[in-house]
Amino acid sequence: MGSLFRSQEMTLCQLFLQSEAAYACVSELGELGLVQFRDLNPDVNAFQRKFVNEIRRCDEMERILRFLDAEVRKDGIPILETGENPEAPQPREMIDLEATFEKLENEMKEINNNSEALKRNYLELSELKHILRKTQNFFDERESEVSSDHSGGPTDKTLFMNDGGGPSGASSNLGFVAGVILRERIPAFERMLWRVCRGNVFLRHTEIEAPLEDPHTGNEVYKSVFIIFFQGDQLKNRVKKICEAFRATLYPCPETPGERREMAFGVMTRIEDLTTVLGQTQDHRHRVLVAAAKNINMWFIKVHKIKAIYHTLNLFNLDVTQKCLIGECWCPVMDLDRIRLALRRGTELSGATVPSILNRMDTPEVPPTYHKTNKFTSAYQGIVDAYGISNYREVNPAPFTVITFPFLFAVMFGDLGHGLVMAVMAFFLVWKEKWIASRRIEGEIFGTIFGGRYIIFMMGLFSVYTGIIYNDIFSKSFNIFGPRWMTNRTIYQFQDHGEPAHGTLFTLDPVLDFKYGQGPYPFGLDPTWALASNKISFINSFKMKMSVILGVLQMMFGIILSCYNHLFFGKLINVFCEFIPQVLFLLCMFGYLVVLIFYKWVNFHASMAGCAPSLLIGLINMFLFKYSDNPKNNADGTPCLQNIFYDTQKSFQSFLVLLALFCVPWMLCVKPFILHRRWKASQAALPLHNVDENGHAEGGKVQASHGGGHDDHGDGATFDFGNIIIYQAIHTIEFCLGIISNTASYLRLWALSLAHSQLSEVLWNMVMKFSFNINGWGGIPLLFFLFAAWSFLTLAILVMMEGMSAFLHALRLHWVEFQNKFYGGQGYQFQPFSFATMTDGNKPVDE
What we know:
Layout: E1 10-18, H1 19-32, E2 36-38, H2 52-74, H3 93-151, H4 156-161, E3 175-182, H5 186-196, E4 202-207, E5 212-213, E6 220-221, E7 223-230, H6 233-245, E8 249-251, H7 257-313, E9 317-318, E10 324-332, H8 336-350, E11 357-361, H9 377-387, H10 398-413, H11 416-431, H12 433-439, H13 444-451, H14 453-470, H15 510-513, H16 535-568, H17 572-603, H18 615-624, H19 649-685, H20 702-705, H21 721-745, H22 748-772, H23 779-818, H24 835-838
Antiparallel strand pairs: 1-10, 1-11, 2-10, 3-7, 3-8, 4-7, 5-6, 9-10
Helix pairs in contact: 1-7, 1-8, 2-3, 2-7, 3-7, 5-6, 9-10, 10-14, 10-22, 10-23, 11-14, 11-23, 16-17, 16-21, 16-22, 17-19, 17-21, 19-21, 22-23
GO molecular function: ATPase binding; proton-transporting ATPase activity, rotational mechanism
InterPro entries: V-ATPase_116kDa_su (IPR002490), V-type_ATPase_116kDa_su_euka (IPR026028)
Function: Essential component of the vacuolar proton pump (V-ATPase), a multimeric enzyme that catalyzes the translocation of protons across the membranes. Required for assembly and activity of the V-ATPase.
């Protein structure tokens, strides 16, 4: 299994890099991604480190690139995704990059400023054009009303014109202002004018149909043209102040029609010229942004790499000569040659004469945990790591999870149709993974689904397999090999009375209705069970027993893996005091139950099924030491469920119970007693040295101190016997109670499977079966709508919601029931310095 079975062996190394070669060497190590550096300056402020100025320059370049990226995306220009990974630029290239970015920024700012000024002028001219056009209508209406006033009675307008006490013809003394205002501010603007001017002004307004572009934001705004008539300078000042308060824009408007026409002609000419200039400005801006869009991703990657290198160099120490950088790093032992080769390449690229040095160091510190994964196994490793990072070099559950996780999911989700839908959806994500990854689709939910596409694909395939075993496809069964039932009785003999109704479910009797000559159904459940009224009883019995068998097997496998941990770390005392009693405890209780399940399946045929002993009652009586001495024929009327399976059952089961009870003090007391004896012996022989829990003097195998992590007690100088007893008691109680609760927890396999199949059957009967029972031509179009509803509910509820539920239950079974038998999960993750994880598209490096 390689490094996937256990984490890779790690070592702490010391690096000596010449100052002129440090940048190139760290760059090569970043491309390799196999080194985790340690901070040798933890007490030094980030702003006081050696390369803080270079990092600030990188921050400034990132700011410019983010500005350019925002401008490119604002114009909707596609960014070129080449998929290339350029090497980190040399330090001298930073000056060229800075000059290029600064030139682009200045050019874009100048273009934006010019464009904004042109758009502001265009907006003002457009508003003035609408004012001249709309106010002409106002003046025409006023002239017509004034002329009608000479022939008819007075109106509100003429009364307003005479409000100052002058003659009726004093309309020439009226002043006016015209401008534009946001459409939503008109009601408040009108009320304010009425209240402040006490009704002595006359307001007319009309909407501008086409939206106008705001030069600052680029958003579309809707405005209205207004004209206000007043009399006197005092009202004029009030009106202008109100317009200023509502941010209305006032424009000059000539009084005579001729002057208005002349101004309108000039405005139209200027708008045409301005449109031409704006078009040329936008074309130039587009050309600049298109050129930038071709290289912006490459620039981001280069700047990120430069910044990451200088961040890493800040973790180094300088020697007294200021010419050598000293660093420490964790790295895999099997990749030391590749690391040395990368250092040699970096030294050659920099032109340094002194080679870089990599020395291994001995340390009592626990190394980080490093598992090599690929795109298929990384998702399973993520499931394991979500529970806790494995201790250094302990057994990794991920390779077993690749099979057991989708299998347990499929046991709960087993349906050929639903599994096929899930597998096809996941296969599409796998098939188009490169294209989807290049699209950089945002969204946490989609990212989670896409990241787990291989898990979902495996869960779909295993669900297809279990669906065939259950003979279940969208709650229907399929007949491939021919049924093995309903041959010995006619259809009328299934009924207690009368003629059978259409679609009636029959109770299958294994004695009367089974073809014993042909044997059982070759693969999976017989399709005839789908028509039986006792289907639930049969399926429940089968799935319940299967859940117990699978649970006991997986828990036993977890305990066996713990033995591998004990042997690997040299903890032989744990093999004798933990592994052996744990195996005996599990086998004496539920291992024996699994044997009885197979024994009952093999030795009790259909004619004996009605009087077969009960597994549940037998298990309860086993721990109560309650047995019946009645003969097997139960002539005295004793219930058949209390019968025994074999003659020596009473004595053998009593022995198993006593052995299981004996395992409890074995796990509780033997290990502390042995540790105490070893400590006393070591104190007599080596009174000045520490002794570990296995009786070895401190300073022995370093690898043993990196072990499975949660069994080490004390320093050997003082032996706290009470602390060890409490620790051992907690683990003993946890294991003994956990075996019982964990076995019961595996019954969720049966419960979730039953719920899924019944929900699928209910959905079919309430939707699809209802549509098939509709007579006449009207059922044809209704069938299409009901099929669409059934498909949607199947996908949303049975595939997605039920799939999520089964996923969470399978996750719990692995974390709690399986991994806690051998998995410590108290390590820390190996986080190498790698450009592959630091350069993520257009996102800055996380400091």
